[in-house]
Amino acid sequence: MDEQFSITLPRQAYTVAVMRDVLRTALRARGICDDCSYPILIAATEACANAVDHGAPAPDYAVRVRFRSSLCLVEISHQGPGFRAGRVPLPEVEWESGRGILLMRALMDDVVFHATASGGVTVWMDKHLHATEPTRHPQCGAASVLPQPC
């Protein structure tokens, strides 16, 4: 069974930590281990920081997270100007920023940037979670398809 949640936040720096706390709570509630959770949290944080930094003039940005058995999909959208991820230069060693896209690609299994028809940007990222085995609920015997604690 798929589960999802979405949240729209004002394009303010403090909301990146709010998103991270909401996502961390959702990952923990599903028993997803730290080895899977930390890369998802870091990549989502970077994508949201980019939406905050580069999403003007949009007043907000949206985060949608879906869980599909052994997969976590994260989608971050804003209505700011589009860009081509392939044309973003590699950061120089002394630069203090510019590593977000590299981190997202290194930490997630798949990352796709999409320019929306309305001029915004959506980044889709997914992470395969550790292999899980179906378990039975102790009281009713229903099978669980959510990842088990690693």
TrEMBL record:
Keyword field: Kinase, Serine/threonine-protein kinase, Transferase
Oxidoreductase recorded as keyword: no
Positions of the Histidine kinase/HSP90-like ATPase domain: 14-126
Protein name: Histidine kinase/HSP90-like ATPase domain-containing protein
Biological classification of the source: Bacteria, Bacillati, Actinomycetota, Actinomycetes, Streptosporangiales
